[in-house]
Amino acid sequence: MSHGEVSPVILDEVVADARLAAWEFDGARAWLEEARRHPMEPLAAEVWVTDPAFEYVLLVKHRVRGWVPPGGKVELGEAPRAAAARELLEETGLHCELLREPAAVAVRSYRADWSATLGLSYAAVAGRDVPLAGEQNQPVAWFRLDTGWDSVFPEDRERIHAHARRLEAARVVGSR
Prior knowledge:
The chain is of the alpha+beta class. The protein contains 4 helices and 8 strands, in the order H-E-H-E-E-E-E-H-E-E-E-H.
């Protein structure tokens, strides 16, 4: 997918969500501004699902990347928020509302032979008692945020943990 194939409405939504994201990593906003002027690689979207106590995160076991948040490629003509919700449903069986504010925007390469890709991370909260239905050969599991998990993106653990602490703090302030 090149920049020219991304509809202006979708590109505007990508930029808006990138600006709203609570966290920015890898100079993602500047990367996006530069990428808008050139052919753009496929966009990625994922969901950081935590439990209501903000102690656990829901991950899927990717055959190459290890344990990662549910997510994937944004399809041509698809908004990144819709892609994140679709990937969440496909990979975990969960249909839950994504929080209004995107969790993060980052730039990373998903394969050694691919160029960098902009990824939007959305957030959701779901009970750990909700039945899960992962894709075949891609298990789904809850992991404690204060422990590690095997992933090619080890920095995700602290990023997701920091976001969960932020959500928990906002909940505490909001309940006063």
